[in-house]
Design a protein that fits this description.
Elements (H helix, E strand, L loop, with lengths): L3 H4 L6 H8 L22 E2 L2 E5 L3 E6 L3 E3 L2 E4 L5 E5 L2 E4 L2 E2 H22 L5 H14 L1 H5 L7 E6 L4 E7 L5 E4 L2 E4 L3 H11 L6 H18 L15 E6 L2 E4 L2 H17 L13
Antiparallel strand pairs: 1-4, 1-8, 2-3, 2-12, 3-13, 4-5, 6-7, 7-9, 9-10, 10-11, 13-14
Helix pairs in contact: 3-4, 6-7
Amino acid sequence: MLPAAYLRSGSPSFADFLADLAPDLLSARLLLNAAVDSSTLAPHGTTIVALRGSFGAIMAGDRRATMGNVISQRDIEKVFQADEHSTIGIAGAAGIAVELVRLFQVELEHYEKIEGMQLSLDGKANRLSALLRGNLGMAMQGLAVVPMFAGYDLDRERGRIFSYDITGGRYEEHDYHAVGSGGFFAKNSMKKMYRENMTAEQAIMVALEALYDAADDDSATGGPDLARGIFPVIAVNDAAGVRLLHEDELTAYVTTIVQARQRRPDGPLVPMEESQ
């Protein structure tokens, strides 16, 4: 006979269902009483950037994870497809962040199967906020997760970007944003290069330049590694859906930027616009 949780009607949320059936599997209930400095024991992901253009929105993340002052992984993935029209990027405690992403993906798939339609982009952003709020206990112990969410809004026919804080606070970013230890440098880089109505190709170049600038000033952010063939993960969100750039496609973009940086290490000059 099925447990009562399977027979109970109400919320279509998979997290609520799991809370009834097996609450010990929810990450917010783990390690609440940890008395150690978790920032030096758990790998942490770093810089994620996102920006909008005429096509929709893109999200990009570097590949480095750190554990204190040590590089714990050089090729971690921090940008994931959430569903057909949205992506999520993670910064913070990597293990918990990846678990949160998987739960979020199942939540969206579960809702679509139960309701027969996709959740709206605002609904997805709100659901991610609730999942983050459930992790607040661990965040207070130092195992914080700070994601960024982006997607193509089919109702408004444009790309949208959402940022969060560790309490689950949700904030919509209008043009571009960056999170993680190198987010300050990446955002300042995008501030100079961003233009409205950019094409997807232009937005990809701006995102890669921003990650390069972040890696130049932040030791926890990894730049492109040509020797190992490790490049940032980039996802394009447009009306057709989510497209993750293949390594062969990324190689051309990265090679162009690295060659230009050899001539000018500080990056491209932003042209001065004449006053009217």
